[in-house]
Write a structure and sequence with these properties.
The chain has about 325 residues and is of the alpha/beta class. The chain has helices at about 10-30, 45, 60-65, 70-80, 95-105, 140-150, 195-210, 220-230, 245-255, 265-270, 285-290, 310-320, and strands spanning about 5, 35-40, 55-60, 85-90, 105-115, 130, 165, 180-185, 215, 240, 255-260, 275-280, 295-300, 335. It has two domains: about 5-160, Rossmann fold, CATH 3.40.50.2000; about 180-335, Glycogen Phosphorylase B (Rossmann fold). Helix content is about 35%, strand content about 20%. The chain is globular and about 60 Å long. Keywords: Cell inner membrane, Cell membrane, Glycosyltransferase, Lipopolysaccharide biosynthesis, Membrane, Transferase.
Length: about 325
């Protein structure tokens, strides 16, 4: 086995949770080169993993929104780059039309995809000449690892290795030192996933009383307003400036605790081995949550968001013992496993 292509196109949380597949493949096949095809919006996150040889990216989301000619040219160029190598195996662990098209265009002897009943879009089946086994009865993240391992005939270590190495920053973020930082990720891609600002305020005050500095990130003007509304309820809370994903990752790395809704940056906190509590209100906690007893936990459920006492109990469950993540003040470029 010389070269393998992973196809996982979007989104941030899914990309992060797919990273352990890279370590699995490289343990099973020590000399293999692993390439990854993804949307350009998430390519940098994949590049943080030194186990990936090439990141093949195209601005698919950007072109869909803006229909810009330059983006179309970039997509065409990415196709040429994709076909520059011949793969022993292509594994599409996304299972929708766009990922299937990428898998089909790539040059490879075996193109693995999910069984029809497990595909996100049934029409994606045209691209595959081999199939993963039935979807295992486990969460989505471990399920991807099981599917690839069974298809390629190896066993994997149950402890996921994200192997994230954050690049250095071009500017100082002025992250406060001294009191431990708790980041509250209140913003999400969908309103149905959100938690009431009064609840965030109550959690923020509870954490402040226990010595934490509260940091509130945001991405859009609306989210900035929501962060300011929460900060008004939490004396001393910091509304952060607008951050890039890399800058946000460095803030996460410097934090002692991350509490947030079901969103990609909270998955990143889990991968960076921060103490993490993820809140669910409109998606399946069992299927998409994070769980590492004593460090990461998910609460709530689709249609049944957690109440404040449940979240406080979850925070206590991940902060009551010594951290296994290392000091938040360790070098920002250090490898995280």
């Amino acid at each position: 086995m010389k070269r393998i292509l992973i196809v996982k196109v979007t989104s941030l949380g899914d990309i992060v949770e797919t990273l352990p597949v890279v370590a699995d493949l490289r343990r099973a096949f020590p000399s293999v080169k692993v390439d990854w095809a993804a949307d350009a919006a998430f390519a940098d996150i994949i590049r943080w993993n030194p186990g990936v040889d090439r990141v093949l990216s195209a601005p698919l989301r950007k072109f869909k929104k803006a229909r810009n000619w330059n983006d179309l040219k970039d997509i065409a160029a990415s196709i040429s780059e994709l076909r520059a190598e011949k793969y022993d195996v292509i594994v599409d662990i996304h299972g929708v039309y766009k990922s299937a098209i990428i898998a089909f265009i790539a040059r490879g002897r075996r193109r693995f995809g999910y069984l029809n009943k497990d595909l996100g879009e049934r029409g994606a089946a045209f691209a595959y000449n081999a199939r993963f086994g039935p979807r295992p009865l486990t969460d989505a993240w471990r399920g991807m690892r099981v599917s690839v391992a069974e298809a390629l005939g190896y066993r994997f270590d149950e402890t996921p290795d994200y192997n994230i190495q954050l690049p250095a920053l071009a500017r100082d973020l002025n992250i406060p030192r001294g009191a431990p930082i708790a980041m509250l990720f209140h913003a999400t891609s969908a309103d149905v996933k959100k938690w009431p600002k009064e609840h965030w305020g109550e959690v923020g005050r509870w954490l402040t009383a226990r010595g934490y500095t509260i940091a509130l990130p945001w991405g859009t003007e609306r989210e900035q307003g929501e962060a300011q509304a929460i900060a008004a309820l939490v004396p001393g809370a910091i509304v952060l400036p607008k951050l890039s994903v890399l800058e946000c990752a460095h803030w996460i790395r410097a934090s002692e605790l991350v509490v947030g809704a079901d969103t990609g940056l909270v998955h990143l906190a889990h991968a960076l081995q921060r103490r993490t509590v993820m809140l669910f209100a409109a998606t399946s906690r069992e299927h998409f949550g994070v769980n590492d007893p004593g460090r990461s936990v998910s609460v709530g459920e689709d249609g049944a968001p957690p109440d404040v006492p449940q979240v406080l109990a979850a925070i206590e469950s991940v902060t009551s013992g010594p951290s296994r993540a290392g000091s938040p003040s360790s070098e920002s470029g250090a490898m995280i496993r």
